[in-house]
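Box 3.1 A note on notation
Throughout this textbook, protein chains are presented in two layers. The first layer is the amino acid sequence; the second is a token string describing backbone geometry. Keep the layers aligned when reading.
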Amino acid sequence: MNRYFDYNATCPMLDAALTAMCDASQHASGNPSSMHWAGRAARRVLDDARDQLARYFGVESGSLIITSGGSEANNMAIYGVLAKAPQGRVVTSAIEHPSVLQTMERWCERLGHALCVVRPNAEGLVEADQFCAVLNESTQPVVLASLMWANNETGVIQPVQAVANVCRERKIPFLVDGVQALGKLPTDVAGLGADFVSFSAHKMGGPKGVGLLYVRRGAALEPWLLGGGQERGRRSGTENVPAVAGFAAALGQLDYTQAAAVRDDFEQQLKQSMGDVRVHGEGVARVGNTSMFTVPGMDGETLLMQLDLAGFAVASGSACSSGKREPSHVLRAMGVDERAARSSLRVSFGVEHTREDAGALVKELVRIRTLLKKMAGR
């Protein structure tokens, strides 16, 4: 039985990725910036992996900047745009990952930009018309807009194409956090038309600690790290060649849309077993593997710990915020009250999960809830 239900936090590494990493470590151990034979061998592996990544996303190899992950890619794009921009407005949504929201808050404050945050509707969807209306307000010019492709907590798919179209017409730099879309949605980056798109390898079977930022040709970006001039001078530092090779090898190996049937069955069983459970975002399009729900009267952290003791791994929100006790900022932005937000869990399935696995999780949730109610005298 597979009891790991936290694939949105990280996906176990695929054999293909591990094999590629080991091969690169053994046969391409030189510095890819060195001119000798060992450096050239490493450069070939790096360039081949970058070409493979570019083909997958339908973009030019030179448009991809290798990073340490999605968070760094988001930080790089936000700082890189705002550091060069005249004072203006920055528009984003209230459900973005902290690597977007917190970074925007910091650089807007330091650089004098005004931050405009658009709230989602009750289903967790940022409505395109509302977002674009903020872009079209005739006050200060918009110097950067950002909207995630799919939300990491609810799985709700956001209207990035519609926003990208408006941003392109108005020449507004547009960042898309694509971390949770990879392997779950078609990711035609070239067709999307955004200026910047971030991805991370470990969400779809690649290694941790490597990601990328797509930068559209002609998009202005202040260099992020200075020193060795790697990544065409945009992000200095010796590239992690084995990790990039592992990233490329993992591409296209997983299709999380197959998990939708298991996720839907899980939610059906959950609501049949506990009629007061509320599934967030079920009325709009979501990625196929994600379910976030509230169990009224229960503390989500207590449920999580009890499930952990029983061997089940789930989440109470974003993994990057798992050490914090604050309720989900995503649910709060959706209008969910604090008590209900604290009573919520996120389950994210992998492609190998079965309906039996989902049923076992529901059965354990029911057992724990019954036990906790009994202990509380209810």
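The longest helix spans residues 37-57. The mean pLDDT is 94.
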